[in-house]
Hints:
The complex is a heterodimer of chains A (281) and B (317). Chain A has 281 residues and is an alpha/beta fold. Chain A has helices at 3-25, 33-37, 40-50, 74-84, 124-137, 156-167, 188-192, 197-203, 216-228, 262-279, and strands at 30-31, 65-68, 144-149, 173-179, 182-183, 186-187, 207-212, 234-239, 258-259. In chain A, a hairpin with a 2-residue loop joins strand 5 and strand 6 (186-187). The longest helix of chain A has 23 residues, at 3-25. The two termini of chain A are 15 Å apart. The model of chain A has no long low-confidence stretch (mean pLDDT 97). Chain B has 317 residues and is an alpha/beta fold. Chain B has two domains: 8-164, 3-Layer(aba) Sandwich (Rossmann fold), CATH 3.40.50.970; 185-313, 3-Layer(aba) Sandwich (Rossmann fold), CATH 3.40.50. Chain B has helices at residues 8-22, 34-37, 40-45, 57-69, 80-86, 88-96, 125-130, 143-152, 201-214, 232-239, 257-265, 289-295, 300-313, and strands at residues 26-30, 50-52, 73-79, 103-107, 136-138, 160-163, 185-188, 193-197, 219-223, 226-228, 244-252, 273-278. Chain B has a seven-stranded mixed β-sheet, sandwiched between helices. Chain B has a five-stranded mixed β-sheet with strand order 7-9-8-11-12, sandwiched between helices. In chain B, helix 4 packs parallel to helix 6. The longest helix of chain B has 15 residues, at 8-22. The radius of gyration of chain B is 19 Å and the shape is globular.
Amino acid sequence: MTEAANVKRLERLALQLRFDLIEMMGVGKAGHLGGSSSLAEIVACLYFQAMRYDPRNPKDPDRDRFLLSKGHCVLIQYAALVELGVVPRDELKKVKTLQGHLQGHPDCDHTPGIEAVTGSLGMGLSIGLGMALGLRLDRRSSHVYVIMGDGELSEGQIWEAAMAVAAYKVDTLTGIVDLNHVQATGPTREVLDIPDIARKWEAFGWEALSIDGHDIVQILDALDRARRIKGRPAVIIAETVKGKGFSFAENNAAFHNGILTDEQHRQALSELEARRAGLGD
Amino acid sequence: MTTPHPNMREAYGMALLALGKANPDVVVLEADLGKSTRSVLFQEAFPERYFQMGIAEQNMAATAAGLAFTGKIPFIHSFAVFAAGRAFDQLRNAVCIPKLKVRVCGSSCGLSDFGDGKTHQSVEDVALMRSLPNMTVLSPMDGIEAARMMECLIDWPGPVYIRVNRSNLPFLYPTSEPYHIGKITRLRDGSDVALLAAGVMVDRSLKAAALLAEKGVSARVFNLSTIKPLDREALMAAVAGVRAIVVSEEHNMIGGLGSAVLETLRAAPHAPVELIGIADRFGLSASDYEEILNHFGLTARAISEAAMQLIEAGPAD
């Protein structure tokens, strides 16, 4: 496959993840659409290219690990697990119900393919550190990916973990910050400004790679570079748009955890269809 | 003072070292209190399996979760007040929900860090840990029992919290007696009163039984070192036929062993119960352990007087 064809494959997969998001959202149900859709390209690149992950053997001890520290956006991970066949498709409509297995936040006790329990914010990087240390003791080459939100960086535990990952020279862990600039109650710079994010990580001993988090080529390149950095950890600061792909939800805090009206649901699907037509065959 | 056994925290550290020798999956995490918790013994022998996490208990607890996901059996260490309090949310979400085999050593528990005062004394750790689904809560009475408990922690499923006292407690666990988690150990037989306790209060309950004997009251004494899960059948048998029950703990009376006993006995017919514990207050700095225990009324005399009052009040109509 040519590089251009591969990029198009991943763009189509990201689009399919957004279709799945809208299926899970339905009409009149609250869901974290904004921060899920800002991750669609990153999640597609991880699960469908960068990660060593065999969906027929999702417990393989040598697999790469995917941890969603910003666990409220687990809908996008469910979409990927459905497309991989790890989670049955009929679970999508049962998300967050007693009849289904897809919890409101990642829960490895309930859902195949989920690696931990996250969602109380700030913990994923620590859990990832523990996994990376355990894998290192076992001399496994698995890589650990931890996705954090930009609002989540207010949690002090993130920086405890950032210090520890660097102190233990863990180069088998890549952090990804979904820099979508909007959190639950408004723009991050208004809620609690966190300036100079890349320089903060660098000061904590990390190599920081800043990219456009919706550009497949840039994502793949950064994931590849991050994995090859030795002796210290790397973090990808991914500039994204919250609600990406849905014009009414883009940069709109109301869709941090919002409800789609019937009309918005139709509009979301028609915007995705237009995107599909734009991507061609 | 020389004794035939190491004190509790030393026994803990030695048992941890033994587990490390026996099982390569045992890993140890420490938050810069290894000289007190005695995790240093493991550090010297197995530096590659020892993770100094600095003064960052939250990160330590969640890192332990990650290690457990790769099949390791992490033992994490701090003073009880920080292990249970500072890292509560991490223990709740990252460890207890997925039922991971993380072992939490709450060292210098209760008032045993007598000099450091209320910020460093744990009066609420049992309540916090007991309230977490899937968590087992242990409180050994001496170094012998602590070592026996540790032997169970390779195979015991799910997360465990163990309270470790820093003082030199008397050695009471019968060395020839088998041990299992959940065991309620009878240390003295008697017919009138049941004295139930954990940790340092077991010795005080035995001394209370001696005081009661002087008054012609026969007391049986039980060590309830597994605070959760509390063996209901064994507890019912322990209190069967007595006229009074006194539960003693080095902890707030809210949410600790006394609460656990009352919750367990609730609907069954049983003798009246009194609790000896800390009356919803924080600790204080004191010049020695005995002084602070006496200050909070955690004494043999208080236990025996509580038993006498229940007996003199007689059965409720």
